[in-house]
Each structure stands twice: as structure tokens, then as C-alpha cells.
Amino acid sequence: MTKKSTIQDKMYSDIQDESIFTSAQTNGYNYLTEIFDRNVFPTEKALTDLTYFDEEMPEHSSNAHTVLEHLHTYGSPATVTNMGGRYFGFVCGSSVPVGLAAKNLATYWDQSPTMNVLSPIGSKLETVVENWLKNIFNLPKRTVAGFVSGTSMATFCGLAAARYRLLANQNWNINEDGFFNAPKIRVVTGKQAHSTVLKAISLLGFGKNTIEWVDVDNQGKIIPELIPELDNTTLLILQAGNVNSGSFDDFESICEKANKAGAWVHIDGAFGFWVGAVNQLKHLTKGAEKANSWAVDGHKTLNTPYDSGVVLCEDKEALMSALHMSGRYIITSKERDGTFYTPEMSRRARIVELWAILKYLGKSGVDEMILGMHKRAQQFANELKNENGFTILNDVVFNQILVRCNTDELTVKTLNRIQKLRTCWVGGSQWKGKQVIRISVCSWATTESDIVKSANSFKQALREVQKLTLIAK
Ligand SMILES: *Cc1c(COP(=O)(O)O)cnc(C)c1O
């Protein structure tokens, strides 16, 4: 007689109890409908209540309802509502509703698009979206895509492909022979490269000290004339969307030069590459199609749920070789086997949300949504520009705005006050050695009235800080 498995019985009965799933769904849905008006950052009480999670790993199993109630009661209030229209911190993005719902459905599927045989639907959607993305961004037909967790990983994959190719050009197989005695690869990038680019450079063993840095202009763009002589051992990393100013490197002229020299160009296009899908803005990425690899997010500008990024690479062999995966049990097919394009073997089928959102929006919807972010950003800048005490430091070419008060001290205090008011949320940064408030407009949900409310909160915060400073004097 087999021993009765109580936990197994319990889980079978959980599946029979529809209310476990419907109550989680209802709580989630109610949350979604309320957060657009909620305080953007959690209240002090919500933060204090997080101590309810501080406990030892339970000795015994508990009731599924209890687990979910606990999570909702203490978890939901302690979220940051980047889903709403007044979150402008970092560069985050909301989620297009249909994407959330599609993810919900796919949650029950729990697919891993590692191989076609593991998930025919995952494989199909990856194939379809790969084609759509090539088309939207006007990339060469031979381009392939890997669906990874974000731009950090996409850039890692792009640079790994570059490393493979640039060494193979010098008759060196990095996979077999490693990096210790390999011929040299030069790495050239701008002084405003994103920290995740530097992370990938370190992880791949290039070493940050070997970087040949190129000076940038007052918007953070690489100055093309200052790029050193390129050759076929050079990896050049450009940027579509500076994380502070939102600026774009001059791809047209730089890529042409790099192509002639046989250098590899990777573009970090985390949030910015999406302007390529917007008629009024696509001049900003002109020439970018001449690069060799590109990293772009789903979860920022396109507003897919986390975590979603894409590496695109015109050199399929280099990408596949760099990320190569082998094993006796690997079953390849004539269809797409996703694992050949990503570092992981197993991963979730994040393609489902990406597909659903692109299918739902269509080209005109993508264009309108992303142009809307640009327009709201311009509106925000205008609201503040006309107000004594605020200065806009960058050209608002896309969705990023750098704001400064008259001194570093006033800027930081005003920023802290804005965060305390909780009407909106913005973060700080440094721009040319000075403290700035950084605004990123990247939610589909941001309305003109959200911008007015948020700008008013900036003004109120500055007034309050100025008043306190006067009293202190
Ligand atoms: C956000 C960002 C990254 C990193 O992307 P993740 O998706 O967070 O890994 C890289 N580069 C730029 C310019 C970014 O804005």
C-alpha cells in the first residue's frame, strides 16, 4: 500500500477550490483599478507593516487562502505604483492591460520556451515576434532575437556575440580556448554609457580599465570626431536613449565608419530604441540598423510586465555560438528552439505578454502610445520651465527631463519633499557634476492631468522648502 501523501491531497483539493484563484484574481483586479488614484509611494504604515513578513520558515504547511490573504493585506499596500500615471522614477514603464491579462492566462500554462518540444506555443510566438520586431525597427532580414529578462541581459548577449565574432576573425575560438591568451579586443564607448554596459564588459572579461572612453557633448551624446580609429578588433557600444537626458548617439555617421573598419557595433537601446516605431521620432535612430547587435526592453517603453528584454543580432552564428548550449537530451527541431538565443536554459514564456501587447496595439497603437509619452514629457517641461525656481537642463528629445532648482541644496530638498508628498514619484541624479531631479515619462497611463498634478506638486514642494529655509534664516 502506498503511503498517503497529505500535502499532495491538499494540493489536489486546492485545485478544486476555485475561490483560491478567483480571490487572488479579484484582489489583483481591485488593486489595479485603485492604484491610479492611490499615493504613488507606500505610506509609512504600509512600510512598517512589512514586518509581518519577518518570520522563521514555517514548520508546517498552511492554508492557501491564508497565504494569499497575508500577501494581499500586507503586500499590496507596500507596492510602488509604477503601474499608474504619476510614477516618473528611473525609467520604469507601466503594463498595457491586455499584457497583464495574457500573462495571467500564461501563468496557468507555466511554459518554458527552451525548445520547441517543450512549448510549441512559446516557440511560435517567439518566431512571430522576432519578425515583427525586425520589421518595426527596420533591421536586416537575417537578424535573430533572444527573449531575455531585460536590457542588462540583452546587452550581455550582444557583447558576448561581439566577443565571439571579433576573436573568430582573428582565428581564436573563445568557447574552446578562453580569454587568457586570446588576441586583444578593443572596447570603445561613450563616457555616458549605462552602468549595465559596464557590468556586461566586466562579466565578459574585457575589464573596465581597457575601455577607450569617448567624450560626450552637453546632451551626453558621443562626439563622433573624437571616436578613435576603428578596426576589425574593435567593439563599439553606442546608446539610443541616455538614461538621464534621453539623447541619442549619431548612428548614421558612426555606424558607417564602423562598418567600413569592420568593427562590431552594439546599441544599448533599452527604452530609447522604441522611437524607431514612431513616425515623428524615428529620425532619432536613423542609421541604427547598420549596427550588429541591439538591446531593447519590453518592460520600459513598450509597457510589458516585468521582466522582458530583447537582444537582436544580425550575426546569428555569433549569437548562437556565444550562447551555445549542448547536452545529450537537447532535442532540436526545424522550428525555433529558444534556448539557442538566450543564456538560460529554462525561462518563463515572457513572449506571451510581448506578443499580446504588440498584437493588441498594432503599429499605429505603438506609435500613438510612445508619441504620447514624448508629448507628456514636453508638457511637463513646459509646466516647470515657466515657473520661477526650476530650470530644464536637457533638450527633451524623447521622454526624459532633467530639472534643477537654483542650488544643489534646494534641488535635493525639493526632491525629498516631492517624494514625501507622494502625489508623484521622481528620483535624483547627477548631471555634469550637479544635483538634478530626473523625470521619466514612460507609462501609457500618464494623462495631461497627471502632468498638471505632478508639476503642481513640484511647485508646492519648492515653495515649502523655500519657506522653511527663510524661517531657518
Ligand atoms: C534601464 C536601462 C538599462 C538596463 O535595462 P534593464 O532592463 O533594467 O536590465 C540599460 N541601459 C539603459 C539606457 C537603461 O535605461
Task: Walk me through this protein's architecture.
- There is one protein chain.
- With 473 residues, this protein is α/β, with parallel strands linked by helices.
- It contains 14 helices and eleven strands.
- It has helices spanning 6-16, 18-34, 44-48, 64-75, 97-109, 120-136, 151-168, 174-177, 195-203, 251-261, 316-322, 351-385, 408-421, 448-472, and strands spanning 144-148, 186-190, 211-214, 234-239, 264-268, 293-297, 309-313, 391-392, 400-404, 427-431, 434-440.
- A seven-stranded mixed beta sheet has the order 1-7-6-5-4-2-3, with helices on both faces.
- Helix 5 (97-109) runs antiparallel to helix 12 and helix 7 (151-168) crosses helix 9.
- The chain is globular, with a radius of gyration of 24 Å.
- The mean pLDDT is 96.
- It binds pyridoxal-5'-phosphate.
- Pyridoxal-5'-phosphate binds at residues 91, 150-152, 194, 196, 241, 243, 268, 270-271, 297, 309.
Q: What does the overall shape look like?
A: globular
Count every beta strand, where a strand is a DSSP E run of 2 or more residues: 11
How much strand content do the residues show?
5-15%
The count of helical stretches stands at: 14
For the terminal residues, how far apart are their CA atoms? 84 Å
Determine the structural class based on helices, strands and strand pairing.
alpha/beta
